[in-house]
Design brief:
Length: 289
């Protein structure tokens, strides 16, 4: 049941593996094998409009089903894939698959794909994106690329050119995990983001009295609105948090409260049934220590 539905993704694999260089090499070899064997799939998590609880899209999140180790968290294998050069092939597979799967959804529903700073530094990225869109027959404005502040560590001229090339294709751009990175606000002057995703660390604890996160979220929302950007609050887990981020003016919500990442089959079935409204599911969340 839990298999592949995004639950119970565990992290001890990499911790164990990263214990030594030999294990690290093993992880790399396993990743390479997995790419060839097709041991990856995508899960999708709904992104919901704050005003009307409509599902505006889904974020694609990669999952690795290791034949022996079980489900491995992307937080563990994406950094390794970045370091050993496998992220290019993995990222291209993610883009193609997400575009193909999203092309089966109703036309109003978007898909968001995470793009690593390593991919962002590759001048071939716009061509890869264009090809994925064309092959799937997906309109460019239905694809949103999520990048992190890490891209601003790359060469700035090349980064500017990449922004222009991607916007030129007509895709949307979102700044992921906002507030956790290098957080120089300077880049917001020129980078053409359509959306800022407020990192879940700012949502944690907002419902508690005296918590400062609400003030920070409010400031981010004001900034984003002034710049004409949408805002998604990430990691919203309970109804109280929905109410608060709505009050603070976030335009979108993503989090376990509206659904865990689930496999494409489940999404497609749901959307076929015309279910475009998300209902909060009040399950108990056990937070990692
Ligand atoms: P992210 O892009 O910020 O994705 C959101 C993460 O938060 C996901 O973890 C999601 O399952 C989790 N999440 C969503 N709602 C909640 C909530 O209410 N509470 C909590 N505690 N967590 C929530 P996941 O799937 O493990 O992915 C972790 C990170 O791995 C992603 O963070 C992203 O940085 C990276 N990643 C995932 N898929 C890809 C991919 O295809 N390519 C690249 N380059 N990176 C990816
Ligand atoms: Mg993301
Ligand atoms: Mg994020
Ligand atoms: Mg993250």
């Amino acid at each position: 049941a839990a298999k592949g539905d995004g639950r119970g993704v565990h992290r001890f694999y990499a911790e164990e593996m990263l214990a030594g260089a030999k294990h690290r090499q093993q992880l790399e070899d396993d990743l390479r094998t997995a790419l060839g064997a097709g041991d990856f799939h995508l899960c999708y998590q709904p992104v919901v409009g704050t005003a009307d609880a409509r599902i505006v899209g889904y974020e694609a999140l990669v999952r690795w089903e290791h034949p022996v180790r079980g489900l491995v968290s992307p937080a563990d294998f994406v950094p390794v894939a970045e370091e050993c050069g496998l992220i290019e092939a993995l990222g291209e597979w993610v883009l193609r698959t997400a575009c193909e799967e999203a092309a089966r959804w109703p036309g109003s529903v978007r898909v968001a794909v995470n793009v690593s700073p390593v991919q962002f530094a590759n001048p071939q990225l716009p061509g890869i994106v264009a090809s994925a869109l064309a092959h799937a027959g997906l309109a460019p404005d239905r694809l949103e690329l999520e990048i992190t502040e890490g891209v601003f560590l790359n060469d700035s001229t090349a980064t500017d050119q990449m922004f222009r090339a991607l916007k030129g294709l007509g895709v949307r751009l979102a700044l992921d995990d906002f507030g956790t990175g290098y957080s120089s606000l300077g880049y917001l002057r020129s980078a053409p983001f359509d959306k800022i995703k407020i990192d879940q660390s700012f949502v944690r604890g907002i419902a508690q009295p005296g918590n400062r996160n609400a003030a920070i979220i409010k400031a981010i929302v004001t900034l984003a609105e002034t710049l004409g950007m949408e805002t998604t609050a990430e990691g919203v887990e309970v109804q109280d948090e929905i109410d608060l981020v709505r009050e603070l003016g976030c335009s979108h919500i993503q989090g376990y409260v509206y659904g865990r990442p689930t496999r494409a089959e489940h999404i497609a079935g749901r959307l076929d049934g015309g279910e475009l409204h998300a209902r909060p599911i009040g399950f108990k969340v056990s937070r990692a220590p």
